Amino acid sequence: MLPILRTGEAIILGEAVKLPMRALIDAPPKNRRPDSQDPIVFEVQDEEHSQEVGGWGIPMESNPNYAEFLQVWHSQNPNLITQKNQEKWKDKQ
């Protein structure tokens, strides 16, 4: 990744082109886009008014639970199922 390139730009090189060229790639239509976005580095608005999650402008949690984070990371499953969540789920049934 080159910091000089804007979002959607690429450098094309290889046997198909005589000289390396800089190209602007059109974004795909909204119904064909991946579920991922560029990470938000800084959000000016406070958390209540923000449309996005995260960023350096959002204050950190006062007491983050890293144990749950590590459990999800090690399981490689984005859905965290903790004992508390299992008890809540059983109570709803």
General description of the model:
There is one protein chain. The protein is an alpha+beta fold. The protein has a domain of 27 residues. 22% of the residues lie in helices and 9% in strands. It is built from two helices and two strands, in the order ββαα. It has a two-stranded antiparallel ribbon with strand order 1-2. A hairpin with an 8-residue loop joins strand 1 and strand 2. The radius of gyration is 21 Å and the shape is elongated. The protein starts with 8 loop residues before the first strand and ends with a helix. The mean pLDDT is 75.
Main attributes?
two-stranded antiparallel sheet, 93 residues, 2 helices, 9% strand, alpha+beta
Main beta-sheet strand count, sense and barrel state: 2 strands, antiparallel
First and last CA, distance: 49 Å
Helix and strand run: EEHH
Mean pLDDT, to the nearest integer, reads 75
Classify the beta-strand content into a percent band.
5-15%
**Residue windows where pLDDT falls under 50 for at least 5 positions:** none
Cα gyration radius (Å): 21 Å
Strand order within the widest beta sheet: 1-2
User: Helicity level, as a percent range?
Assistant: 10-25%
Count of DSSP E strands? 2
H/I helix tally = 2
Structural class: alpha+beta
Shape call: elongated
